Design the sequence.
């Protein structure tokens, strides 16, 4: 501000001689424009140029246009452009770039078409800029322009083409362009890695990443986020540690990706370290990072920490509220979720479709049928939000859990949106919960006829048959799975100890401390039997002797994770377990008892929700 304040802010101190000097030396004014950090500063210089009839000076006009766009005022940039006589390629490129960097991609393409129509040939920078702003379909036409104007081999243009084809899902074409580049740099490597990562080809991305001679924070972020977004959170965390060892300073994008990975595996200690790092490295936490922290803490089982972050965020928006409401929902604290929903409405914030997914889920976990219907009906009636398939899924889940299967079935059939396999699967799961065989079989037949059946469909049907002891039905279902090439997802449980996540499968004997784990498991089995526990064998999906069913239950992944947590953490500390599937009834009962016997809080997250077990009771109230 001080460099330009003599021009406008303090005119009494601004003598004629300096003005004359500035008007005679436009390069000084150009430098002032380039150094402007705000629209206010730029407007002051612009006013000075108008007063001295310098607005149409080609260099100053160009720099004004570019600076307005860079600072987000595209309107002023376009107004200047429209008053420019016979704009050349540099002016067109500036206005195209201004729209592209501000997310106005359609308008950027419009100016490119106008430029070609006016007979102005693009340069390499024009093409690389407009390629970043267009879809893959339009980009193919621009690819021919790159060839026509002789810029196809330009490093920046070729990199933009690699990015274009990668964004469009055509990684084969992207890789061909990448491999035939005359010269490849850090940006082109990152573009190709991004293409692989966004399309789920993580291993291919990692090969390229490992082969890079130099890496910046952007390339590390792409790889870490690729792992986090495609269900490989442990690898994301390992790579993040390697990034720190390489002495690269993580930025906000890094933290968002790593917090997502922490939430997926329940790595609370790692998430807390990142939170501490953020507090140390920045004065305040913005809403993006704050929302990610809330989500991480909720998914790692620490609602208290999530609420502290929520309360500390200033100027909360709907996204922040949504994260906290959803956190309360998955933990089964429905009353808190409903209270926060009321607080959000009273604050003047308008709920979004995501808000309603969270609040309807909260109702489902507590069996609040009438409240759920009232909220569902208010979506269109009060807020003008049309329910999506996810909202119907929440209502089917709510009704199904509450035993209102016919009402749930009628809702599925009457949805204005065609029900997908997830919606039918939700209803099928409710049939298993309430042992409604006829409706379950009808749903499976419907899904098979329409090719919507997946592994979950067969497993749910098999569970229904096993629950009533229909082993012929179980056998038929398994035969259908084998014929269709469908495999059941194996149960896996994890527990974090000393910043390291330990994973277990049922009957796992691969852990280095397997002897100590199984010794503790024996102790746990003895404890619960002494407290009157009898194994809940009805959930075992095999027609075997009762004693064999009991033995199979004793080595479930949840219990192995629990045993490892008991031998690896301090007495009295909370144990947090993450299960990839729904927790089995026997493990649920055992973990409740162990919380009472040991005096320890045990928090378990399964596919559907959290279970806070304290002194023999669970927060779910055995309704899950």
Sequence:
């Amino acid at each position: 501000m001080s460099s330009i304040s003599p021009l406008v802010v303090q005119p009494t101190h601004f003598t004629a001689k300096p003005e004359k000097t500035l008007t005679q030396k436009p390069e000084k004014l150009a430098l002032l424009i380039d150094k402007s950090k705000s629209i206010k500063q730029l407007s002051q210089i612009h006013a000075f140029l108008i007063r001295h009839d310098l607005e149409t000076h080609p260099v100053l006009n160009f720099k004004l246009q570019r600076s307005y766009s860079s600072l987000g005022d595209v309107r002023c940039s376009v107004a200047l452009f429209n008053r420019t006589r016979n704009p050349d390629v540099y002016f067109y490129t500036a206005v195209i770039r201004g729209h592209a960097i501000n997310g106005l991609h359609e308008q950027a393409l419009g100016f490119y078409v106008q430029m070609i129509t006016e007979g102005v040939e693009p340069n390499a920078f024009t093409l690389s800029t407009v390629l970043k702003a267009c879809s893959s379909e339009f980009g193919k036409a621009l690819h021919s322009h790159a060839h026509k104007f002789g810029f196809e081999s330009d490093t920046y243009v070729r990199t933009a083409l690699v990015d274009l084809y990668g964004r469009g899902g055509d990684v084969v074409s992207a890789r061909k362009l990448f491999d035939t580049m005359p010269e490849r740099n850090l940006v082109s490597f990152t573009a190709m890695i991004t293409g692989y990562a966004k399309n789920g080809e993580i291993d291919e991305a990692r090969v390229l990443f490992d082969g890079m001679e130099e890496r910046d924070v952007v390339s590390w972020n792409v790889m870490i986020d690729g792992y986090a977004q495609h269900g490989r959170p442990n690898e994301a965390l390992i790579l993040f540690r390697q990034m720190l060892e390489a002495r690269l300073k993580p930025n906000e994008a890094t933290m968002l990706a790593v917090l997502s990975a922490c939430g997926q595996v329940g790595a609370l200690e790692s998430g807390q370290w990142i939170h501490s790092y953020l507090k140390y490295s920045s004065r305040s936490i913005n809403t993006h990072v704050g929302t990610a922290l809330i989500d991480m803490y909720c998914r790692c089982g620490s609602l208290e920490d999530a609420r502290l972050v929520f309360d500390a965020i200033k100027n909360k928006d709907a996204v922040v509220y949504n994260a906290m409401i959803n956190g309360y929902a998955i933990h089964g604290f429905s009353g808190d979720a409903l209270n926060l929903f009321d607080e959000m409405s009273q604050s003047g914030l308008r709920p979004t479709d995501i808000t309603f997914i969270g609040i309807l889920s909260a109702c489902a976990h507590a069996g609040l049928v009438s409240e759920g219907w009232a909220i569902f009906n208010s979506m269109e009636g009060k807020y003008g939000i049309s329910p999506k398939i996810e909202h119907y899924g929440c209502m089917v889940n709510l009704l199904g859990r509450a035993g209102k299967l016919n009402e749930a079935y009628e809702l599925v059939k009457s949805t204005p949106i065609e029900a997908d396999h997830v919606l039918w699967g939700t209803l099928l799961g409710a049939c298993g919960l309430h042992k409604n065989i006829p409706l379950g079989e009808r749903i499976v037949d419907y899904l098979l006829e329409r090719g919507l059946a997946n592994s979950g469909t067969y497993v749910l049907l098999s569970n229904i048959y096993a629950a009533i002891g229909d082993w012929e039905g179980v056998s038929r279902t398994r035969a259908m799975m084998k014929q269709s090439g469908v495999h059941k997802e194996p149960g896996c449980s994890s527990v974090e100890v000393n910043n390291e996540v330990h994973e277990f499968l049922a009957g796992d004997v691969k852990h280095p401390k397997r002897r100590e784990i199984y010794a503790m498991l024996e102790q746990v089995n003895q404890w619960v039997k002494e407290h009157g526990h009898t194994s809940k064998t009805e959930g075992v999906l095999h027609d075997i002797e009762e004693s064999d069913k009991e033995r199979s239950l004793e080595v479930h992944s949840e219990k192995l994770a629990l045993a490892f947590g008991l031998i690896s953490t301090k007495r009295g500390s909370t144990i947090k377990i993450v299960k990839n599937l729904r927790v089995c009834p026997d493990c649920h009962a055992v973990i409740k008892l162990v919380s009472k016997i040991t005096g320890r809080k045990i928090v378990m997250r399964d596919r559907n929700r959290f279970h806070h077990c304290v002194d023999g009771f669970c927060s779910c109230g055995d309704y899950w």
In short: Confidence is low (pLDDT under 50) at residues 1-17. The CA atoms of residues 455 and 488 lie 6 Å apart. The first strand starts at residue 492 and ends at 497. Residues 514-530 form the longest helix (17 residues).
